[in-house]
Amino acid sequence: MPIRRTGVCTLLRKPGDRLMKNGSQDFAEDIKSYMTIHELLQVRIVDDPNPATYYSRINDIAEGKLVIAWPTNGGIRLLVHRDQILDFSIMRDGSPYSFTGLVDATALEPLPQITLILSSHVMRVQRRQNFRIKCLLPIEITGFIRESAQDEILSPLHIQTTTYDLSASGFAIRHPKRIPEGTLLEIKLGLPDGNPSIKAPCRVVYSEALGETSRFYRTGMQYLAISEWERARIVRFVYRTQLKGLTT
Fold it and tell me: Which CA distances in Å does 200 have to 122, 150, 187, 188, 203?
């Protein structure tokens, strides 16, 4: 069944304490707090098992995007392309901080530069937190679950609902039944960008009651396999939603 690409999204500013449940700052606040023109950056390729470190600096900050000098190592430029996500590190008061950024555009003239969209919070080196927005987007979820830990028989699951929030690493929904942590499911997520729905396998990372009197559970899921282009679509959608919230 096709998914209608309609949705309502707002900035999510309520603090929390878990995956996709924390991160009250948006990208503008992170840039204001941590970024300055001429800031030196260390750059690595995400998920590279033997990453070389490249070096860059911030040349400009405009419309919530970073414009950086093309990263180099010993005079050799880093090979990058649009929609690629890179790892960045900066130093603050003697402590390393890191974040990820999506390559939004590249230019060789008049100077070799890369334009970035921040895709995660700037955090002291421990664990990164992707930007998250409260977002109502159509989503279809299918798979099989165990109703309880004692059950040996799997029951089919088919949910058509909307997301509760969304980030580049996963999303949450509200559902009247608890879905056990670790459950593997398939999702079809509709983004209002004119492209096909995103299909991906996911894993349930938490499922908790919304409150003592609530009949619903808030269930968070993490993408297990998603293409670079699909993740870039989510990052751009989150960025546009945050930017809209700053200008309205």
Answer: 27, 28, 6, 7, 10
